[in-house]
């Protein structure tokens, strides 16, 4: 029985690899079509894939192995972006999880803040960009603020729902064990809400990437968004496209990190069958 | 050593030694139409080391009663006395095993950590916790499953883990709410025998709530019969079957048959009474 339980993740990851290989074929085909079409049309704005790839290596990976191949351009534009992303996303996670748990546990606060949260969630954060610029000026603080604000709501609302959605039997059982508040929080509440918290964090990482680029397109003196706008003005479209490729790779990387963390931390969640016992 | 034969078998004998004394317990749920009574002046006592079952027709408020006795639901009237003290919430010395093992065990913790959980923050040294966990798991025959997660185990095994978690705190009383209602018949029989073995080994008092009359008679020293809800105690019967009990031999004795029939007729009668008086079932 334990052997079966252990072989299941292996089997599923083998399947995932199989699916990955198949979709890679499709991607390769698409790239070939792009290459041929771009060469035939000869547009300045959509260069062939080979040119984009060349620009990608030149722009981002042209340095010596001692600096991990990462070029000065990478350090000038990608690192500031990643720092903003990390700070904004980190702040949103800390705040969102903290507040979400607070209003999830403390019912009056939940009832009070709920409409406010729904309102905050439905305001497109991008619309607040001009205000953020006025408040912070053209600083990294502006980008961080916007990313944090955009990421906050999904994490907050998911954490809240996760805490409220913990099964009543789980809560009753925990009460009968007479755990201290701290242990209840760490061993029951937090793990119980963690699938929902992770779902919120996963939605937010995509939002963070979007807001990072948009806020940098508008107002920044460095960063990937800033780089994209500069290359557009210089009519260097292979370079511009190389930044977009880099963004896509970042997106894939973040998703992969999430998939890995969930695989390890939420293994129980995928394996629990909700109908394994009859409810009465 | 067989503690069974030395136990007082008469209900109501030596009330002052009662571990649990349920006095005029009533519980109502609030609804828009006013209070809906679930249980109505329940009265019985459980003595140290006894195995007492509570049976009643389904929907008679057994789970409500169990939750009230365990201090997991506030009561509306009367009192639950544990060792002469009024219970006002979950307390040390009382462990609960729930019907729904898949939810009462925490799927994110291993079996070992589930069992160890109630032992933390009790000022016990690590070695003591480890030893108690080991001991409890051995008692239910699951020492080999310590590192697995509950969802890697069958339903019966999960319920054994829940029993081990209850035993780990070395409770004076184990309250069990239809613990074997969600497992198949064979697993159920072996769980019943496991429970009897553990009960004999530990000397823990057991309050066992079930809707299964055979199970109640087979396991218990006494069977408390409840009426259809809002429930009251309609009978408190001593079960004088010999111990150790055997799934086949005990159930073939004429006494078992008589008791079983008696309890069955009491349950049916209480059901009939309420349906004749026009109350919703």
From TrEMBL, chain A:
Residue ranges crossing the lipid bilayer per the database entry: 52-70, 82-107, 127-156, 207-228, 240-261
Membrane topology: Multi-pass membrane protein
One Pfam family this sequence matches: BPD_transp_1
Domain ABC transmembrane type-1: 78-262
Keywords (A to Z) from UniProt: Cell membrane, Membrane, Transmembrane, Transmembrane helix, Transport
SUPFAM superfamilies linked: MetI-like (SSF161098)
Keyword Cell membrane belongs to the record: yes
Major localization listed first in the record, in broad terms: membrane
Domain of life: Bacteria
Compartmental location: Cell membrane
InterPro entries reported for this sequence: MetI-like, MetI-like_sf
Presence of the UniProt keyword Transmembrane in the record: yes
Family stated for the protein in its record: Belongs to the binding-protein-dependent transport system permease family.
PANTHER family the record matches: ABC TRANSPORTER PERMEASE PROTEIN MJ0413-RELATED, ALKANE SULFONATE ABC TRANSPORTER-RELATED, MEMBRANE SUBUNIT
Protein name from the UniProt record: ABC transporter permease
Source lineage: Bacteria, Bacillati, Actinomycetota, Actinomycetes, Micromonosporales
Automatic annotation (TrEMBL), chain B:
Keywords: ATP-binding, Nucleotide-binding, Transport
Protein origin, superkingdom: Bacteria
Gene3D superfamilies found in the cross-reference section: P-loop containing nucleotide triphosphate hydrolases
GO molecular function, one term: ATP binding
Domain spans labelled ABC transporter: 20-253
Alphabetized PROSITE patterns for the sequence: ABC_TRANSPORTER_1, ABC_TRANSPORTER_2
A family per Pfam: ABC_tran
Name this protein carries in UniProt: ABC transporter ATP-binding protein
Originating species: Micromonospora antibiotica
């Amino acid at each position: 029985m334990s052997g079966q339980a252990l072989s299941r993740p292996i089997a599923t990851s083998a399947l995932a690899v199989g699916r990955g290989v198949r979709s890679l074929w499709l991607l390769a085909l698409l790239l070939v079509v792009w290459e041929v079409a771009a060469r035939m049309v000869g547009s300045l704005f959509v260069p062939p894939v080979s040119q984009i790839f060349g620009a990608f290596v030149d722009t981002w990976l042209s340095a010596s192995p001692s600096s991990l191949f990462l070029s000065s351009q990478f350090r000038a534009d990608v690192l500031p972006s990643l720092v903003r992303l990390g700070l904004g996303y980190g702040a949103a996670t800390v705040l969102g999880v903290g507040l979400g748990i607070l209003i999830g546990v403390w019912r009056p606060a939940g009832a009070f803040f709920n409409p406010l949260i729904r309102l905050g969630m439905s305001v497109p954060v991008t619309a607040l960009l001009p205000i953020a610029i006025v408040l912070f000026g053209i600083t990294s603080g502006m980008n961080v603020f916007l990313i944090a604000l955009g990421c906050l709501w999904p994490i907050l609302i998911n954490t809240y729902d996760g805490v409220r959605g913990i099964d009543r039997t789980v809560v009753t059982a925990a009460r009968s064990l007479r755990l201290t508040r701290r242990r209840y929080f760490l061993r029951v509440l937090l793990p119980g809400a963690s699938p929902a918290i992770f779902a919120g964090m996963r939605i937010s990482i995509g939002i963070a990437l979007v807001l990072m680029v948009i806020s940098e397109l508008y107002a920044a003196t460095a960063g990937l968004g800033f780089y994209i706008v500069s290359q557009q003005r210089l009519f260097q479209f292979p370079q511009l496209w190389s930044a977009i490729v880099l963004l896509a790779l970042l997106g894939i990387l973040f998703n992969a990190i999430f998939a890995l963390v969930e695989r390890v931390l939420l293994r129980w969640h995928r394996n629990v069958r909700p109908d394994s016992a009859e409810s009465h | 050593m067989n503690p069974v034969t030395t136990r007082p078998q008469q209900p109501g004998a030596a009330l002052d030694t009662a571990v649990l004394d349920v006095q005029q317990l009533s519980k109502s749920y609030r609804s828009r139409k006013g209070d809906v009574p679930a249980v109505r002046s329940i009265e019985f006592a459980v003595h140290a080391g006894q195995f007492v079952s509570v049976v009643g027709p389904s929907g008679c408020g057994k789970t409500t009663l169990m939750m009230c006795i365990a201090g997991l639901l506030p009561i509306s009237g009367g009192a639950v006395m544990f060792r002469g003290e009024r219970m006002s919430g979950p307390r040390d010395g009382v462990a609960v095993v729930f019907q729904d093992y898949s939810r009462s065990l925490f799927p994110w913790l291993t079996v070992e950590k589930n069992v160890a959980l109630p032992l933390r923050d009790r000022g016990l040294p690590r070695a003591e916790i480890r030893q108690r966990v080991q001991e409890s798991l051995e008692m239910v025959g699951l020492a080999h499953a310590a590192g697995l997660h509950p969802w890697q185990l069958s339903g019966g095994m999960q319920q054994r883990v829940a029993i081990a978690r209850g035993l780990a705190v070395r409770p004076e009383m184990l309250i069990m709410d239809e613990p074997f209602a969600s497992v198949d018949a064979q697993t159920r029989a072996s769980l019943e025998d496991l429970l009897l073995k553990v009960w004999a080994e530990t000397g823990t008092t057991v309050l066992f709530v079930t809707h299964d009359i055979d199970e109640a008679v087979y396991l218990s020293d006494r069977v408390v019969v409840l009426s259809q809800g809002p429930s009251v105690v309609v009978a408190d019967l001593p079960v004088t079957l010999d111990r150790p009990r055997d799934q086949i031999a005990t159930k073939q004795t004429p006494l078992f048959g008589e008791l079983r029939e008696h309890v069955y007729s009491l349950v049916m009668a209480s059901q009939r009474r309420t349906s004749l008086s026009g109350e919703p079932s």
